[in-house]
Amino acid sequence: MDFQLYLDILGTIAFAISGVLTAMRKRMDAFGIFIIAFITAVGGGTLRDILIKAPIAWMHNLTYLYVIIASTLFAAVFRSKLIYFRRSLFLFDTIGIGLYTVIGMQKAIMLELPAPICIAVGTISACFGGVLRDILCNEIPIIFRKEIYATACIAGGLVYFALNYIGVLVSFNAIIAGSVVIVVRLLAVIFKLQLPSIYQADEASD
Q1: What pTM did the predictor assign?
Q2: Per residue in 114-169, pLDDT tens?
Q3: CA angle, corner 81, sides to 78 and 82, nearest 5?
Q4: Max CA-CA distance within the chain?
Q5: Distance between CA atoms of residues 165 and 161, nearest Å
Q6: Of the chain's two ends, which shows fewer C-beta atoms within 10 Å, N or C?
Q7: Alpha-carbon torsion 153, 155, 161, 163, what sign?
Q8: Is residue 79 helix, strand or coil?
Q9: Mapping DSSP to helix (H, G, I), strand (E, B) and coil, where does residue 26 land?
Q10: How deeply is 40 buried, as exposed, middle or buried, from its count of CB atoms within 10 A (0-12, 13-18, 19+)?
Q11: Count of helices and strands (H, E) across the chain
């Protein structure tokens, strides 16, 4: 298993569990839980592959399907251990965006796309599965709120290209850039950092 596939599988696991936790919080049945897990896990990657005209990964490699099934069963069976659903959801979602940002960028870089486009592809890859998950679960997607979410992906992308410019080994670069996404997201939540609001106080309260 090459390094990129390894990261992709880890991201799939993290997002699948994130989907399971959201679906269980909404009291969905077993089929609904699996569908939300599946869409969360592969939604961003599918859009990424469509945009860069690459083979859709999960349709050509059944490993992704097996990983999603195993992750769904794991999260469902050990749900009693995941007492703090919101914290668990946040953790797995954050890990997922860190890993998928790097994967998306690496695939775009292989096609020799411009740096801003590579960062955009990485951000889409990381965020779109969560967008689909939240929409299907009747919630406003995190990316459309004031929370620092996509911004964390962009920060990781900028770090990736900065390190790539000075010649850092690709595997180390991927770990560092992915960690930056995770750390930025964690710090934003811990210290309640948010993007500036364009709404006045009376509008924000409506």
Answers
A1: 0.90
A2: 999 999 999 999 999 999 999 999 999 988 887 799 999 999 999 999 999 999 99
A3: 95
A4: 54
A5: 6
A6: C
A7: negative
A8: coil
A9: coil
A10: buried
A11: 9, 0
